[in-house]
Amino acid sequence: MPVNDKKRSSNVSSDSCFETRLKYLRLFFLVFACVIGAKLFLLQIVNAQFYQDLASGQHDVYEELIANRGDILMSDWKDGSEYVVATNESRAFVFAEPRKIEDPESTAKSLARILGYEITDVFVEPEVQAQSGGIFDGLFTADFPDEEGSSDPSMVDDESLEPEASDYELLLTRLSKENDPYEPVARNVPESTLNKILDLNLTGIYHVLEGVRSYPEANVGGHVLGFVSRTDEGMNGQYGIEGYFNDFLSGANGFLDIVTDIGGSWIGVGKRDFDPAVDGGDILLTIDRTIQYTACKALSEGVEKYDADGGSVVVMDPSTGRIIAMCNAPDFDPNIYNEVESIEIYNNGSIFDAYEPGSVFKPIVMAAALDMGAVTASETYVDTGEEKINEYTIHNSDLKAHGVQTMTEVLENSLNTGMIYVMRKMGGEVMTHYLEDFGFGTLSGIELDSEATGTLASLAKNSEIYYATASYGQGITVTPLQIASAYSAMANGGWLMQPYIVEEKRYTDGTVEDTQPRKIRQVIDSKAATTVGAMMVQVVENGHGRLAAVDGYYVAGKTGTAQVAKKDASGYEQGITIGSFAGFAPVEDPRFVIVVRIDHPRTTEWGESTAAPIFGEIAEFILDYLEIPPTR
């Protein structure tokens, strides 16, 4: 082959190899680029959120700053001392990791002794021991009730346990689940009890501290205070003061949001957002602690003595509208609010349970007639014992005819026919106007949750029969607080005052917002108020209110025995009544109004034998406590 041909062939072969290597190199870089692109796609698109969260977890710090809930206080008139009746405490939630516990029985016995459980012989079946319990995320929700008031493990749901198992049996069963990462032991554990548990240094037993709402004073009226429950959003006030002022008491949570380096130190040029928590304010109630305790005790004992379903007491300062005491029976303990038999017990009967008041309503209608000059205290009528209106016949409660009677005797003997006479003299529409001015049929505006208006709806029918029954307290509904407000107006020269139960709102910056007494309107003139007060003194001296009398003082008041309307039909329940007594003292310078209501007393149906003695007991104590000298 010629030399030139050999050179040409060699060059062709060399070029071919170079192109092949170049092609493979291009293919390599193409594949490499595709791999890099796919990896970037996974990092930046598919798994972007994961790596953002990972970086945030290493460099960002976000913490919610929890505000402290404000306190609720009461004071004593004697020396002005203040007492905390609702505050915050740190309690422990004790839980176990059973898989780390080598001797469940020994551990259970040690805990049971401290928690006060009775230790019994228990056989735990192997299959129960092997069961796995709840996952750890059930720490505060799934495996244990969210009510902070319970430290009783027997309230924990567990289908594997017999419902009649004792506290110790439940505890041992939980601790015996050898593969279980988490089981609750006890909630709301006091510091003293927790320290005893920690001293034992038990393997597999842990705790976390929780803020709980505590109510140090027992028997001071759970309905006034309400309670605090735990929700996903935090602590939430319900009912009473806790519910009405939840936002004020809760304050506002803050937060801390910063960027740190790998060592956890803040990066000077990084993000730093800080919003401090603002603690909730404190509330001082108008309630007198000593009078409250005495009134609640008298009511509770009275309900038991007369075998009643329940009852209410309201004590009010007529000159200002301050609520001095407010109680209901049965009461509940806000510390263990979740242990009530029915949620209906949370309702404050003094403001929620509207009822037909019966004869305690008569002085209010009489005061209206006196104010407009329709009748006088000494004016007479002839009582025949009954009054016919269309097809209806209305009788006196004693079913007697009393003959000639004065208006004072109408109240003394509680005559229904006499009140119909009064209503006719003033006119049904005029009577309705006065009742509305006394505040019936509307909210009083007191700072408590769940207030009811009661109703005067029947009077809108403009029918004489409805006017007639309303004149002696039937066919309309009211609350004990509304009765207390109306009697306060009669005791206060005719002036209706705004009822209030909060003396001061104290802000964390030191600002104090105090409540000033507020006049709503003058319903009757002072002469009518003085006259009806004197007429009610005769009720206590000579009439049905003798058991409400207090030696050495002139007490004005009126009894009431009301029928209870059927819920699902017309007419009234047979054999069920509500006994009431409302009044004030001393009549010359009234310092307090008391309304007592007793629901369905079984020992006797009459208010003069049930509510009146409770009124007298409370009134006698207050007169002595306030150091009011006898006036007779």
Automatic annotation (TrEMBL):
Chief localization: membrane
Membrane-traversing stretches: 27-46
UniProt xrefs under InterPro entries: Beta-lactam/transpept, Beta-lactam/transpept-like, PBP_dimer, PBP_dimer_sf, PCN-bd_Tpept
Compartments (UniProt record): Membrane
Upper classification of the organism: Bacteria, Candidatus Uhriibacteriota
Gene Ontology biological-process entries: cell wall organization
Organism expressing this protein natively: Candidatus Uhrbacteria bacterium GW2011_GWC1_41_20
Protein name (Swiss-Prot/TrEMBL): Peptidoglycan glycosyltransferase
Domain of life: Bacteria
